[in-house]
Amino acid sequence: MFQKIFRTIKNYINFFKLDDSKKKIIFYSENEFYTIHFLSLIEILTINKFEVTFLTSSEKDDLFKNKKLVNYFYIGDGFLKVMLLCIIKCELFLTTLTDIGHNIRKSNFCKKYIYIFHGPTSVHQLFKPHAFNNYDVIFCNGPYQIKELRHLEKKYNLKKKMLFNVGYPYLDYLIKKSNQTIKKPSKVILFAPTWNYNKNNLFDKKGFEIIEKLIKQNFKVILRPHPEHYKRSMNVINKINFEFKGEKRFVLDKNSIALKSMEESELLITDNSAITIEFLFIFFRPIIYINFQRKIHNKNFFDIPITPIEEKIKNLFGYELKPNQINFFEEHVKKAKLKISNKSKITQFRNKNFSNIGNVSESSFDLIKQLLKK
User: CATH assignment of 181-353, given 3.40.50.2000, 3.40.50.1820, 3.30.450.40, 3.40.50.11030?
Assistant: First the structure.
């Protein structure tokens, strides 16, 4: 414990010693599961000789620890982090952390706070009402988010932000890194439930039962908990991992990047997780939604007359079940495959709603250069 505190304090001292010219562009990540959304952008910045500073609250988050032109600092998740982020000085502060100004205070010494989405969903269902209010700049995944954010600004008389149609960086990264020639798997299911503020949720209440029933039907199950489950439902994860220890048809995926599990899976099961969108748009494989508890984190959601993109995708390409319908799962798999049989329709939907596919990092890089000049 004392060694950890000592390392953290040492990092703070080194951070303040670092010349301000090396801290013009600062990235902050909660942990390694969110850092993956910066990968392509930091890569293109450093390739073009831009030096950046990277701050993380997780010791496991070491993707940029020894990368050239990246000043890496582990800053913990306690009082010192709060104090540092209150007085930090920079030109651009980029993060995937929502609710800036509520989760952490903004510094008067940072010129622009930039939000980068860590998911491909709409802004008004899965996020709190004030999740995006205090950013100066938002890099949007596509036109659907610009429409939603402008609607919220007008409806609630919010400060108008700089919204840019950049694209979804993580989708771009996964498409480029994915193995499209991999042999199509059979009877392998990626079970990726979402988290929910409501404790009566699918993972906590039905997760074990669903995995057990699928294994009994001779399916291999890859469980990929949401990053928030490691904070909120660790007891459930431990129970499942203990009960299926030694079971060859069960795998717990703890990797920060989900690509390997997606490549190895015939289909994906979730309740409300946005990983379905990535899985569908990259591999064109079936997605099954288990309707248990809808995830609505915005108390004003029903006042906003815009259908979220995740609901559109669910209706167009998803196959829906109730938890008690897991039996005879082979029949459901066949029906789910029919929903994604038209690949051109999926591609058209993806390209219409998600911008700059194949060039998201380049688009983001150009904007950062422009913002540094303002």
Answer: 3.40.50.2000
Q: What is the dihedral angle through the alpha carbons of 307, 313, 318, 321, rounded to the nearest 10 degrees?
A: -30
Residue position matching structure tokens 């609250």 = 57
Name the residue ranges covered by the structural domains of the chain.
2-175+356-373, 181-353
> In this structure, what token pair is assigned to residue 28?
């902050």
> Which amino acid makes up residue 127?
F
Are the CB atoms for 121 and 149 separated by under 8 Å? Answer: no
The 8 Å CB, 24+ separation contacts for 175-179 are 175/281, 175/282, 175/357, 175/358, 176/40, 176/358, 177/259, 178/259, 178/262, 178/263, 178/282, 178/283, 179/263
pLDDT tens string, the chain, 374 residues long: the values are 666 777 788 888 999 999 999 999 999 999 999 999 999 999 999 999 999 999 999 999 998 988 999 999 999 998 889 999 999 999 999 999 999 998 889 999 999 999 999 999 999 999 999 999 999 999 999 999 999 999 999 999 999 999 999 999 999 999 999 987 777 788 999 999 999 999 999 999 999 999 999 999 999 999 999 999 999 999 999 999 999 999 999 999 999 999 999 999 999 999 999 999 999 999 999 999 999 999 999 999 999 999 999 999 999 999 999 999 999 999 999 999 999 999 999 999 999 999 999 999 999 999 999 999 87
Q: What type of residue is 31?
A: N
Strands lying side by side in the sheet with 52-56: 70-74, 52-56, 25-29, 90-95, 110-116, 137-140, 162-165
CA atoms 146, 116, 306, 103: torsion sign: negative
Amino acid at 265: S
Kindly report whether the global pTM for this prediction surpasses the value 0.90: yes
Burial class (CB in 10 A: 0-12, 13-18, 19+), 291: middle
Q: For 2-175+356-373, which CATH superfamily applies?
A: Glycogen Phosphorylase B; (3.40.50.2000)
Query: Using CA atoms, how far apart are residues 166 and 186, in angstroms rounded to an integer?
Result: 36
- Same fold yes or no, 2-175+356-373 and 181-353: yes
